[in-house]
Amino acid sequence: MARSTAKTKPTRSGVLWISGFAVAISLVAGGAGYLSYLSHAQAVDPETLCLLNHEAPVAALVMIDVTDRIEQRNVKMIEANVLGIAKKLPRASKLIVVPFDDDTTSALTPKYQNCVAAKGADARMDENAKFLDPIYKQFLATLGDGVRNAVNDAPTSHSSPITQQIIRAGSSPSLGWVGTQRKLILITDGLQTGAIGRRSVALPKPESQPLEGVDVVFIEVGNRRDKSRQSKRLRTAWERWLKAAGASSLKMIDPSHPATEL
């Protein structure tokens, strides 16, 4: 008997199974490649938590005016404000906390300079959420310590050259204030030496725009001794000065506004 040479056609279910298996293999391979890309593109320094292969999404510079002694109740307010801002920043954003006094010759020195840790809720597909939350809590605790140290370690100042210190910070490459977006959080009583007269307020006009492209949050700290000088005219003068210095956006927060509004 002659042997049949006819080829057996695969059934429809067999074709579908083979096709589905090929698609699954492709998805697994593609997913593994994507996870590998994520791990490389978003790899962070284990100490600073900053991105190794990309610029920080946001670089936030927190400048704290310590030219006048800050009351303890205001220290708590400042810490709450900074932590509130940090919680809203994208992961791996850079945070630099710099106190300033009347010394305009020495370099501005950060009391804290690291990046924002990731929350468990922000875990990527290649991360385990339960391991992120303890790191995030430690990040907030360390940041809070840095803010308190910045305020409590301040020496007594004889003047308040606030605008000069802002200009110095804006043009200082040593601070590492570099990111896709830049943000300045200025915490001050606004009482610049020589700027406040009996009937007028005149801040020195900025000769350059050190805040070009920077989003600015101005947080006014109450000064019990000179409360009467912290007027609407003073706030208006600061609005004009910050815009003249190049601020792309500006939010003014005075003592009557709680930290949650940030």
Q: What is the ordering of alpha helices and beta strands?
A: HEHEEHHEEHE
What is the CA-CA span between the terminal residues?
Answer: 90 Å
Task: Provide a count of the helices.
Answer: 5
Quaternary = single chain
Give the CA-based shape: globular
How many DSSP E strands?
6
Estimate what percentage of residues fall within beta strands: 5-15%
Question: Which structural category fits the helices and strands?
Answer: alpha/beta
State the major sheet. 6 strands, mixed
What strand line-up does the widest sheet have?
3-2-1-4-5-6
* Spans where pLDDT lies below 50 across 5 or more residues: 21-39, 258-262
Give a short overview.
The chain is of the alpha/beta class and 262 residues long.
Give a structural overview.
With 262 residues, this protein is of the alpha/beta class. The protein has 5 helices and 6 strands. It has helices spanning 12-41, 72-88, 129-152, 162-170, 232-244, and strands spanning 58-65, 94-100, 112-115, 181-188, 214-220, 249-253. Strands 3-2-1-4-5-6 form a 6-stranded mixed β-sheet, with helices on both faces. Strand 5, helix 5 (232-244) and strand 6 (249-253) form a beta-alpha-beta unit. Helix 2 (72-88) packs antiparallel against helix 3 (129-152). It is globular.
